[in-house]
Amino acid sequence: MELSKLNFWEELPCGIYSLSMDVSNLDGGFVGEVKKHEWTNPLLKELIKWERILVNPKPGVLHLSDSHSHEGQQNMHPTCSDMVSSESGPNQASVSVYVQKVLNALRESVMQRSSLHTIFQAVACDGRKEELCPVAVLFSGGLDSMILAALLNECLDPKYDIDLLNVSFDGKFAPDRISAKAGVKELRRIAPLRRWKLVEIDADLSNLISETKHVMSLISPANTYMLQLSFRSPVDLNIGIALWLAAGGDGWVYEGITINNDEDQQGVKYNSKSRIILVGSGADEQCAGYGRHRTKYRNGSWLGLHEEMKLDMQRIWKRNLGRDDRCCADNGKEARFPFLDEDVIRTLLDIPLWEIANLGQPSGTGDKKILREVAKILGLHEAAVLPKRAIQFGSRIARESNRKNFGSNRAANQASAGSVVIGKQNLT
After folding, report:
1. Whether 355 contacts 98, CB under 8 Å
2. Distance between CA atoms of residues 140 and 245, nearest Å
3. Which domain of life does the UniProt lineage start with (predicted)?
4. Which of 172, 222, 318, 413 has a Cα at 20 to 30 A from 381?
């Protein structure tokens, strides 16, 4: 089907739909009627509203919260006495309970999405029956993917390997490749008995002309250049290509003990056979991980931050999930999103906003504060302080796309603001 004929597609809001087809009166064509079935569970209806009760902290509360963030590093496992919270506001003990509740909800979410009765039959990797890899992680080595990988290790039988899928458009120099290698070292430290496979998927955008057109058909109807202030890159397309390549799982695995550098390792061509991919979507939206969240906080304080996060969550189905799901499914893989589990969302909404994030603190500290505390409990101390970096920038596809479409990053920055519809001329 030609790209010009794809503009009739629409993303549907989350829900249950039925489709009735009628071909009786049409010459070779068909007509369909789509019906949305409303949620019958009142808890789900409330969840969709995404309302948080505790948004604005009382005077002095932030000081207690920040003090606990530092003290909590010494004692991250709450005792029974920690389960009591003060009516006057969150204290050190109650904040520890918040972190523990998020960890428990995320652990259960990953368990539900990786239990053997919920995944496809395990497939032998590279024909070696003893090495099975039923579940993989879209892996940048950043905070979200490190948490998912560590929890998957807790939930998945030790006999299974775990594939960590990492995409780079700048070889070993891409930020995500560097952080992924550091991340897998940290994972091997906390889980030395698990066989972790960092699948290094290298790509050259200039050699992906036909693939780019194919991904365009997958991300439709998101067919505009979502221009960002710093790079003005085709975000939907860049993310789609990176996800599509990751889901394909065709890369290299470097095994062996390094002495000086990565060149000491032997590279083995590898194709991940994992049918399930855990993706970190929803973490930034719910825990204030985006730069625009910090801007809203500075301009509109806590209420402005809450409204921006609410907007992100209520449009994530349209901006992210359909695109991401199709780019993975095209490779015969199923994307699963542990951070978007209903219980995880409910747990985070029940926590005061100032315990979720404190954007008065520096990047890498206050943004996604509660997830950083979760990472520390899991032993991921290096990942706990990593700043947010989007996949299009971490993989360097944004830079390569700018060079291809604008000649350079500087030229891209000088391009007029707004959205540019992607056409065939942009893909050649």
Report:
1. yes
2. 14
3. Eukaryota
4. 172
